[in-house]
Amino acid sequence: MISFSWIIAGLLALLALAFFLLWRRAANATGESEWATTQAKRETHEAKLATQRRAEQLDALLVGAADPIVILSHELKILHLNPAAQALFGPQAGPGQTLIYATRSAEVEELVAHVFSGGADHDRQVTVNGQPYRARVALAGAEGEFGAIFILQDLSELQRLGRARRDFVANISHELRTPITSIRLLAETLRNGAAGASLSPARADARPDGALGAASDPSARADLLEKISIETETLAQLSQELLDLAQMESGQTLLRLIPIPARKLIETAAARLDEHRARKRQTFKLESEDSLGVLADPEVVGRALVNLIHNAIKFTPEGGQIEVRAVPEGDEVHVTVHDSGPGILPDDLPRIFERFYRADRARASGGTGLGLAIAKHVVEAHGGRIWAESQGLPGRGATFHFTLPRAG
Question: What would be the CATH architecture of the domain defined by 65-154?
Answer without folding.
Answer: 2-Layer Sandwich (3.30)
